[in-house]
Each structure stands twice: as structure tokens, then as C-alpha cells.
Amino acid sequence: MTHVKLYSTLTCPYCIMEQSWLESKKIQHEVVHVDLNPKEAEYMVEKTGQMGVPVTEIGYKDGKMEYVIGFDQTHLEQILHV
């Protein structure tokens, strides 16, 4: 895994929970507030078909991208190996 990006809004409680969880696991990540950045919101919907947050984008070294919809801690633990 090379990059973790969390698509979030300022008022989303699950986004706040996921960000806290990522920080507690010392996982470096970028937070994108889609409520403040319409272009990023459009990109998120284009890639996932989802309008809701959180959406987590995992970028791997080989260029593959994986998306986790919602704060799915079990799935995140598996793919992030924590």
C-alpha cells in the first residue's frame, strides 16, 4: 500500500471515527473534504458510484486502486494489515 485517502465531510460522524481510527493505528493518510471540494466529490462519485462518505481510497505500488465504502473497520484492518 502506498497511499490512503479518506473522502470525508466536516459533519460526518463516521468519517471522524475513521480518521481517529487511522490515526490510532499510525496509518498515514490524506483527508479530502468533499463538501469543500466539488471536483474531489465528483471524482469520488465517478470512481465508486457512491455519494455518501466515508470512502477510503487505497493506492497500491502497482497502480491498482481499491475503495472501501463506509467505515468498515474489519475490511480496513485486512487490507492495511493492522
From TrEMBL:
Pfam families: Glutaredoxin
Gene3D superfamilies: Glutaredoxin
Domain (Glutaredoxin): residue spans on this chain: 4-59
TM helices/strands, residue ranges: none
Protein name: Glutaredoxin domain-containing protein
Organism whose genome encodes this protein: Candidatus Gottesmanbacteria bacterium RIFCSPHIGHO2_02_FULL_39_11
